[in-house]
Structures are given as C-alpha cells and as structure tokens.
C-alpha cells in the first residue's frame, strides 16, 4: 500500500531542516542549505508544510497573521506581522521600515526583517515548485496538538520537552539521532515536526486555515496559515 508522505520544514542556521512523516509517523530528518536542494530529492511527498510566510499582500497586513495571532491568545506575539510585498524589495532594514510606514502607517520588527532572505527564497520557489506547499506556523500547530492548552516558551527546557511529549502523543516519535539534521537547533527540529503534523492534516483533509476562507493573493493563489 502506498504511504502518505509529508514534510514539515523550518529555517535553521544551516539553511532548512525537515521532518518527514509516512502515514503520520516519523520517517526521517533532512537538512540542506537551500529549499530547492532540500526538496529536489523528495518529489514524491504529498504535502510540504513550510514555516515561512507564503504569499504577500500588496498593501496592508496579511489577514493570515491577524487570524493566527487571535487564535493563539496570550502567545499572539509569536506570530510576526508580515509587511506588504513592496517592503521586502528594500535591501536594508531602515528603508524597509520607512516604506512600511508609508504603506501601512506602522513599522515592523527586526525579528521579522531577519526572515527576509528565506522569505524571498521560499516565495520564489513557491512560484515554480512541483510540490504542494502550504504555510504553517509551529505555535499554531502545537496549540492544535495541545487542544488549546498554553505552553511555556520553546526556548526553555520545559517548553521543549512538553512539545516533544505532545508530538509523541500524536504518534511522532523524534529519535535522539537525526544524522546531519541533528546539527539544527532543537527548537527548529521541533518546529519542523509540528509543521509535518499540520502537513499530514492538510493531506488528509482535516486542516483548518487562518483565515477561513483563505485570503486571495494578488500574485495568484491564496494566503493562509494552516493547522
């Protein structure tokens, strides 16, 4: 019987790290410097859940971020507001903030700006990808696994262990040995695994989108965070 194969992908210091699931269970971990390199050898996966904004508004803020932040409640600050497309065409932070204020009346954080290179890489790949690529957010995914229960910060020992336990509860057993992918940060691996859980839900028709229905994207397709 053919297995349902999905990937959850998160950015890391060495590029991108992925957790692969077959029929919802852990089946491997992968790491590569670029997104195309990571996915080139995995053309048979059914869905890729990517922790990176996919689709940009032309003006104003994305409804996906607003809806996901509202769903997270007290943890809403873990969702960065993603500025509109013209802002990302700037090459430095200060001009980008100025452009953002011109368009939206507000600035945005350096943390969000730090996503620029990977955000542009992911959106360029989305336009040519042979894969079914969906945007996910790990804290939204973990909230779904935890059925709305609040969690400690993923930067803490308690937070990381609780997230690993939650993954185990839904059948995703992350081994101690991940090969080359083990050099990724613990939070990146956990986030990729949460993205894989959402990818499995997307592939099996169980997922929820934020917003629902998804927002139309001027460049084509839709903008939504899936869980």
TrEMBL record:
<protein>
    <submittedName>
        <fullName>DUF429 domain-containing protein</fullName>
    </submittedName>
</protein>
<dbReference type="InterPro" id="IPR007362">
    <property type="entry name" value="DUF429"/>
</dbReference>
<dbReference type="Pfam" id="PF04250">
    <property type="entry name" value="DUF429"/>
</dbReference>
